[in-house]
Structure formats: C-alpha cells, structure tokens
C-alpha cells in the first residue's frame, strides 16, 4: 500500500477514478424505486452489523437520557386522559345522533431514528423498524410535535422515511377551522438560518392570519385529517392576484428527533388491534 | 507491510467504525458530529495510491448513500472525488505535519459536503444552511477528532507525523 513519495498518478489510477465516477453517476441516474431497493438490499445484508450496533447505541442513549422526560410526559398524559372518558362518550352520542360512521382506528408503531452524519440527513430518516411491524410505504410518520413525513420503503429490519425537508414532499393541508385549503411543500428559497415550509395554492380571496395552525386536510388518502404541520409565519409570495403562498414554520424538526411514531393506515378490510 | 502492521491497520479501521456507529450516536448525535468514516477514508488516502483511494471513497460513499438514501449515488460521487484528490494532493505537496493533516481532514469534509449537497439537488435555502452552518462545524470537529486519532494511533495507521 505504501508508495514512493512524490510519485504522480498513473494511468491505472486515473482509470480507476473515472470508473468510480461513472458508477457514481450511474447510481444517481437510477430510478428511485430501483435505488431504494438496492439500498435496502445492501443495508439488510452487508451493513446489518453496523445497523445493529447503531441501534443498540441509540437505545442505550435514549434509555438513559429520556427516562425523566418520559416520566413527566406520562404524568401529563395521565392527567389529560382523565377527562377523555366523558369526551369519548359524548362524541359517540353525537355521532349516533348525526348517524356518522365510527372513526377509523389507527395503530401507531414507535421507532427510533438512526441519524447519520451525511449533509443530506434529515431529508430522509432511517428508522429502526422492520416489515414485521406491518408498516407499509405511504404510512405517515409523526412526532408529538406534528407531522414528520411519510414512509418511503420498508425492509426486514429497517425503514426509510421521507421527511418534510425532502424536495419531493407534499401534503394536502387546511387551516385549523377548515376554511382554507392548500398544499404544503418545502420552501426552496429560505434564509440560511431558517427552515420553512410553504402553504401553497391558497385562493387570493382567502386570508390566513399569522400564527394560524395548519393541519393535514385528509384529502388524497395518504395522511389522515388533523395532524399538525406548522404555524403560518407570514405571506411569502402573491401570484398575480389569484394565489397567495404563505410561509409555514414547521412544528416538528426531523434533524433533532430521537423517536417517531408511524401511523399504520389500515388496508381496506384490515382489522386494526 | 508485515502481518502485525496489517492487523494494526485493520484494528484501527475497526476502531473508527465503532466510533462512528456506536460512540457517536451514543454521545453526540448531531449533524456537527465528527465523521469517522470520512476520517478513515482520509487515512487510507494519505497512504494509498489515488486510484485505490478513489475506490475506497466510492465504497465509503455507497455506505453513506445506503444509510441516507436522500439521493442515491451523490455520496459515492462526493467521496470518490475526495479520496482521489486527497491521495493526489498528498503525493504532490502535503508534508507530514499534524496541523496540515488536520487541514486535510477539514478540507475533505468541506469538499465532500459541497459535492454531496450539489449532486443531490439540494434547494437553495438548505444548501446555504448546509454549507455555511453545518459544514464548517463538522469540518472543525472532524479535524479535532482526526488530530486525537493521529496522536494516539499513528503507529497503527503507519503515518509519520512531526509533532
């Protein structure tokens, strides 16, 4: 492996370099479905030991540092849950009066986030979660703060989720009172120190006040209605009198999340425990 | 290279892999945390021919892409270029100085992040945040970690350093 000091590159070095460059460009040009399958295959075979090691490290860290936070959250949840019985009964009675169907129950699957040091980490998240949990591509990923993203691919022992920071991310959204509908997408032109989403496609006649909470609308069938996405932080752009684009401060930060929940949207006819 | 040297070399990379996949997530799981895989690539590049360093970069890049599949292939491209240029640069002008090596590690992080962000089609806002905020921080931490690794284990990696 040692070489003579000062020796310049040879032809074989250049050829090897060019070969690696061509292979890299070929990998970039692969269709997304193929590249995800390829990544899953390598992750589930050659990289399984390192994935296992990182999962143990994350478990060790979270079990140590998050215990007190979890205790506090559990106490708050117990307090909040005390009034839920009466609310559920009232909700059931009102639904009965209005002849509405029962709400579709959705199971949640908790998952640890295995962060990487790559500069693109945060656009996709690697979750320590396998296919055995029943999670499927297209299932929404949430955190206690709000919407994080959507499951992109599921392998035997790991799952890849696309976060709202990914340029391809889109979600149908509505304001808290349901009066204004639009599409939420990542902002393409933001300040270096800020990360914002955009609430697009809002009709020019509709005005959304700063600070308004924006939730998933449930349209499109991927995300259920009512998951918080972010708060309006001002108007970003007005399009020639027919559309306003609002800046939206996201509630969940994918880069800092240690744990997420995957909402298992039941397939038609599937019973959810 | 003797059998003992080879064993020490392999042990050194096993140590870097353990630091990357176990110690880092356990202690400091941040985008500014040192990248021990890139450090391993730079240590290979310091000793190997540019072609071998490019191949090592390609393999490290694929590992990177498989674990962060935001844009498959972008990491491989960036690491290949970094490995090749580091080995070529070392052959041409880098002396065996600790601080110059630290600069090499930091430069590797900056070049890798720049190429990876550009090749993965990062939007302008995220690009500037990545290049102006996170990249300098990660370059500094990786260089600091590299100095410590070189001081403690330079014999394992058979690297001559003037301290």
Question: What would you note in describing this structure?
Answer:
The complex is a heterodimer of chains A (273) and B (163). With 273 residues, chain A is of the alpha+beta class. Chain A has 5 helices and 12 strands. In chain A, strands 1-12-3-4-5-2 form a 6-stranded antiparallel sheet. A 6-stranded antiparallel β-barrel of chain A has the order 6-7-8-11-10-9. In chain A, a hairpin with a 5-residue loop joins strand 6 and strand 7 (181-186). The longest helix of chain A has 19 residues, at 11-29. Chain A starts with 10 loop residues before the first helix and ends in a 9-residue tail after the last strand. Residues 1-6 of chain A have low confidence and may be disordered. Chain B is mainly α and 163 residues long. Chain B has helices at residues 3-27, 36-47, 50-67, 74-92, 98-119, 124-153. The chains are: A alpha+beta (273), B mainly alpha (163). Chains A and B meet through helix 1, helix 2 and helix 3 of A and helix 1, helix 3, helix 4, helix 5 and helix 6 of B.
**Number of helices, where a helix is a run of at least 4 consecutive DSSP H or I residues of chain B:** 6
Strands of the widest sheet of chain A, in order across it, are: 1-12-3-4-5-2
| Major sheet attributes of chain A | 6 strands, antiparallel
Q: Compute the gyration radius of chain A: what is it?
A: 23 Å
Mean pLDDT over the full residue set of chain B: 87
Number of strands of chain A: 12
- Helices and strands of chain B, in N-to-C order? HHHHHH
Q: How widely separated are the two ends of chain B?
A: 24 Å
Round the mean pLDDT of chain A to the nearest integer and report it.
83
Distance between the termini of chain A: 59 Å
Largest sheet descriptor of chain B? none
Q: Into which percentage range does the β-strand content of chain A fall?
A: 25-35%
Largest interface: A-B, 71 and 70 residues
- SSE-based structural type of chain B: mainly alpha
Number of helices of chain A: 5
């Amino acid at each position: 492996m040692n070489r003579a000091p000062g020796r310049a590159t040879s032809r074989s070095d250049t050829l090897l370099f060019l070969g690696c460059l061509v292979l890299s460009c070929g990998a970039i040009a692969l269709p997304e479905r193929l590249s995800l399958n390829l990544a899953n295959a390598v992750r589930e075979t050659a990289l399984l030991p390192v994935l296992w090691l990182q999962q143990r490290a994350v478990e060790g860290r979270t079990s140590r540092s998050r215990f007190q936070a979890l205790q506090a959250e559990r106490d708050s949840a117990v307090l909040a849950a005390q009034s839920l019985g009466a609310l559920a009964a009232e909700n059931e009675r009102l639904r009965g009066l209005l002849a509405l169907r029962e709400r579709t129950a959705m199971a949640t699957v908790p998952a640890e986030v295995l962060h990487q040091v790559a500069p693109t980490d945060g656009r996709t998240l690697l979750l320590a979660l396998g296919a055995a949990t029943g999670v499927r591509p297209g299932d929404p990923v949430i955190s206690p703060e709000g919407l994080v993203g959507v499951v992109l691919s599921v392998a035997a022992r790991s799952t890849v989720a696309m976060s709202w920071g990914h340029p391809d991310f889109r979600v149908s959204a509505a304001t808290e009172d349901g009066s204004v509908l639009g599409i939420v997408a990542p902002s393409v032109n933001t300040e270096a120190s800020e990360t914002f989403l955009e609430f697009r496609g809002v009709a020019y006649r509709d005005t959304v006040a700063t600070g308004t909470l924006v939730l998933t609308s449930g349209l499109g069938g991927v995300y259920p209605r009512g998951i918080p996405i972010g708060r309006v932080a001002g108007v970003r752009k007005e399009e020639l009198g027919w559309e306003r684009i609002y800046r939206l401060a996201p509630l969940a930060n994918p880069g800092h999340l240690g744990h997420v929940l995957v909402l298992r949207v039941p397939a038609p006819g599937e019973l959810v425990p | 290279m003797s059998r003992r040297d080879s064993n020490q070399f392999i042990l050194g990379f096993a140590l870097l892999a353990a630091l990357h996949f176990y110690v880092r997530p356990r202690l400091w799981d941040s985008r500014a945390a040192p990248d021990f895989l890139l450090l391993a690539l730079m240590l290979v590049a310091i000793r190997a021919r540019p072609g071998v360093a490019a191949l090592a970069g390609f393999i490290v890049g694929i590992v990177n892409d498989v674990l962060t599949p935001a844009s498959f292939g972008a990491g491989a491209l960036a690491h290949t270029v970094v490995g090749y240029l580091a080995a070529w640069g070392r052959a041409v002008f880098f002396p065996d100085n600790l601080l110059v090596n630290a600069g090499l590690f930091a430069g590797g992080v900056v070049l890798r992040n720049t190429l990876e962000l550009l090749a993965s089609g990062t939007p302008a806002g995220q690009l500037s945040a990545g290049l102006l905020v996170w990249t300098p921080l990660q370059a500094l931490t990786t260089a600091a970690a590299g100095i410590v690794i070189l001081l403690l284990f330079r014999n394992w990696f058979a690297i001559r350093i003037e301290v």
